[in-house]
Design a protein that fits this description.
Distance between the termini: 21 Å
Shape: elongated
Strand content: 25-35%
Helix content: 10-25%
Structural class: alpha+beta
Order of helices and strands: HEEEEEEHH
Number of helices: 3
Number of strands: 6
Strand order of the largest sheet: 2-5-4-3
Radius of gyration: 18 Å
């Protein structure tokens, strides 16, 4: 919401420049979102074992028990486990924006309501 609030009231051609602190943007990095997972748990989209193909720095998509997916990155490869960071890549970062508004339109219902985002945010805040 902080990003949108900074742009509120601007029209086409308006210029903007602002900084968002981590708490206003993607949040702080939550240590609870860094986990070790057995390599055997990683299955590729072809149904085959994929853990042995993953290494430090590799981006991956994880699926939770309810079928929701989210991005993560491999932090470390150990003998039988992978250390995974499920925090957003921009978590903990101060963001700087500078630009101009090209056009303005009403948001769609889908943009206004996103149960996945609300649920995911709640999970992160409870960690």
């Amino acid at each position: 919401p902080a990003f949108e609030e900074k742009l509120l009231g601007l029209g086409p051609g308006s210029k903007f420049e602002f900084t968002l602190q981590p708490e206003e943007a993607y949040g702080i990095s939550h240590p609870g979102n860094i986990v070790e997972i057995p390599i055997s748990k990683f299955i590729g989209i072809d149904g085959q074992a994929a853990g042995n193909k993953l290494d430090k720095g590799d981006p991956i998509v994880l699926t939770d028990d309810e079928g929701y997916t989210f991005n993560a990155v491999v932090l470390e490869r150990k003998e039988n486990t992978l250390r995974i960071d499920g925090n957003h890549a921009m978590a903990g970062k101060t963001l700087y924006f500078k630009g101009s508004v090209l056009a303005v339109r009403e948001s769609t219902l889908e943009e206004k309501i996103s149960p996945y985002r609300a649920r995911r945010s709640e999970k992160l805040m409870n960690n």
